[in-house]
Amino acid sequence: MATLSITWHAQMDEHTCPTCKALNGHTWVFETGKDMFDGKLRVLGWVAWDVEQGSKAHGHSTYSCRCFITHEFNLEDIRAKCVYLSELVKAATEKE
User: Fold this and answer.
1) Residue 7 CB contacts under 8 Å (≥ 6 apart), including other chains
2) What is the 8-class DSSP label of residue 22?
3) Does the structure show a pLDDT above 90 at 25?
4) Contact 8, 26 (CB under 8 A)
């Protein structure tokens, strides 16, 4: 299964709001073909990150969190299927 993982990162200092501290290290995983990433990261139904607006975690507070997200794609299963198909094609062409 191909997946997209998105992880929340906070600076974890005196300028970081309590919400971002609690979200630090939290990872959302979306499975291709099963889950749909709509550009929003939700925690218990609440939007913490919006692709268009950025962090929504600390709203209009006076904190200067400097929180950010990172993403990672895992395409290993797709690579394995391509190798398998390549081997099938190679075996079929060798028979000819």
Assistant:
1) 25, 26, 27, 28, 69, 70, 71, 72
2) H
3) yes
4) yes
Give the contacts of 64 (CB within 8 A, at least 6 positions apart).
15
Residue that the structure tokens 């630090």 belong to: 24
4 vs 1: CA distance, rounded Å: 10
Task: Count the Cβ atoms, other than its own, within 10 Å of residue 50.
Answer: 13
User: Six-digit token pair at 29?
Assistant: 């995983």
pLDDT in tens, 29-45: 998 777 777 888 998 88
- Global confidence as pTM: 0.70
Structure tokens belonging to residue 90: 């190679």
SS3 42: strand
Alpha-carbon distance values, 58 to 18, 22, 25, 45, 67 (Å)? 8, 11, 16, 16, 10
Q: What whole-number distance in Å separates Cα of residue 68 and Cα of residue 2?
A: 23
